[in-house]
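Re: that chain you flagged

S.,

Sorry for the slow reply, it's been a week of failed gels. I finally had a moment to sit down with the sequence you sent. For the record, here it is as I used it:
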Amino acid sequence: MDVDAGLLPVAAGLVRTDHAEPSIFQPEGLLREARRQRGLREDKVPAICLLDPDGDVVRSLRLSGRGRRSDTWAGYHTDLWETDGEEITIGVVGNAVGAPFAVLVAEQLFASGCDLLVSITSAGQLDPAMTLPATVLVDRACRGEGTSAAYLPPARYVAADADLIAAVARELQRSGVAAIQGGTWTTDAPFRETRSALMAATTAGLTAVEMEVAGLYAFARARGKPVVCFALVTNQMAQGEGDFEKGPDNGTARALTLVAATVRAWRTLRDTPGIDSDDEEAR
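Prediction finished late last night. Pasting the structure tokens below so you have them in one place:
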């Protein structure tokens, strides 16, 4: 047996070449064993789910009494909270920070009945023209983390589903929700955001730096799942006081508004004959 199967040694490290090969470890197996060990019944999560890396939405839902903790969610590392949105129930998982953690949870959510996943993460400002806080509908991410390499061959960027992003952008505009469409830099080393790296990302036309999007969009591409990522740009990397402010209720109302708009756009796209949101052009 070739111990290096699926790995190609290169000067900078190891590059995966086994993207078409199925994984031995599957989320369904992990969830099965978690349910067995914890005595949980098998149940589906809400069809619409939100990743809340900062945990602010979850904290707000708990404090206001608008959230219900799921007693059937089998994720080992997280809790899932449910809240009622605009004629929908939304499942919210908080504190899944970074691409490895976010994708781990995304895999489990889709294996548990999720149909659409939205991620809303805090981000650092790259575009100097922004007034903070600002919302970015992310259409592509620069792959500065490692998770995306396990799902897709090497490339500088991973793009979102173009049709889905366009539909969300139209719905945001129709609903009067201010947002910028653009690209971000995904890093897994936030305290190595050097001046050189930030200047390079800015020169490339990227709007913000965050920690999850490239991994999530690579997962979405590889698995054929609908994922929409927003970056809530709240800071200038703590270069001065007053950073990381999201506005009223730590951005919870805005986050739920973004989820509702995304759901409307996704449903319109899904129900429109002749439109395939995973077509080759979108790839």
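What I noticed first: Confidence is low (pLDDT under 50) at residues 279-283.

Talk soon,
D.
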